[in-house]
Amino acid sequence: MKKYTSPSVLTIAGFDGSGGAGIQADIKTFSALGCFATSVLTALPVQNTQGVRKIYSIPEEAVADQIEAILDDIFPSAIKIGMVHTPQLVDIIANTLNKYDKVPIVFDPVMVATSGHRLIEEETITAIVQRLFPVADVITPNMDEASILANMQVKTLDDMYTAGKRILDLGCKSALLKGGHQETDIITSLYFDESGKISSFETEKFQTNNTHGSGCTLSSAIAAYLAQGKNISDAVSLGQQYVFEAIKSAKDLKIGKGNGPLNHFFNPQKLIIHEMV
Fold first, then answer.
1. What residues does the Pyridoxamine kinase/Phosphomethylpyrimidine kinase domain cover (predicted)?
2. Fewer CB under 10 Å: which end of the chain, C or N?
3. 3-state DSSP call for residue 198?
4. In what order do the strands lie in the sheet with 138-139?
5. Are 43 and 55 a contacting pair, CB within 8 Å?
């Protein structure tokens, strides 16, 4: 009797009870792109579309236990790492993942929420750079996060070129600098690959408040495409297109009183299945 399997993607990230960002956005994205979603909770932010009210920590040991429980059973085809807000949590995640075979890893260095709320402790940045940058195949900072990582203001496209090169020098394999905060009609994001080659992606900017979770969604989409066997460059390109369509199809949607969510299910795929050898 034939047996089948599906590309699975693990998200290691924070919670969002309002359903637009964090683990909830990741699970929606993986599912919409035909992958099986698994998850590990790193933090419990109390938030809605209007902002983050408080962040409750998850014990580091509980995070390690969660990762081991999933990897021992449903080993992922790719991993997305999101909110990691303490140095201890960085060490726990890096140490636990290092016990297992390497799979493609997308790291979204979540430091600033869409609302502008700072989500990360200062001393965590050094730990992230030292422990998570080397294991990630691509990192996906927005302009605010690039400013923190590159230690400079990032307001323009020229700033992004400079910041991207500085971030690569920190030791990551490749980086996608997201241009969503640009005050222009066309948004340009820049992908810096392992060789230093820079690719630009241009998309139309919509007048909408519904961008809550767009960064989580993009990193998850890239991870989902990597799980399907795409190379990083193609996964980045396809991920950008997915987020563009998710924002476009939700631009007039009214959910919540603040920054509303994307429409992750504008064109959902059936679960991808492969015959097991």
1. 16-263
2. N
3. strand
4. 36-41, 8-13, 78-81, 105-107, 138-139, 175-177, 186-192, 198-204
5. yes
Distance CA 38, CA 221 (A): 14
Q: Which CATH superfamily is domain 4-275 in?
A: Ribokinase (3.40.1190.20)
Structure-token pair, residue 50: 């209007």
Beta strands 105-107 and 175-177: pairing type?
unpaired
Instruction: Give burial (CB, 10 Å; 0-12/13-18/19+) of 187.
Output: buried
Instruction: Name the DSSP class of 128.
Output: I
Tokens of residue 162, six digits: 């400079």
Q: Which residue in the block uniquely carries the two structure tokens 């690569």?
A: 168
43, β-bridge pairs: 57
Q: One digit per residue, pLDDT tens: the chain, 277 residues?
A: 888 999 999 999 999 999 999 999 999 999 999 999 999 999 999 999 998 899 899 999 999 999 999 999 999 999 999 989 899 999 999 999 999 999 999 999 988 765 566 667 778 889 999 999 999 999 999 999 999 999 999 999 999 999 999 999 999 999 999 988 787 889 999 999 988 899 999 988 888 999 999 999 999 999 999 999 999 999 999 999 999 999 999 999 999 999 999 999 999 999 999 988 7
Does the model's pTM come out above 0.85?
Answer: yes
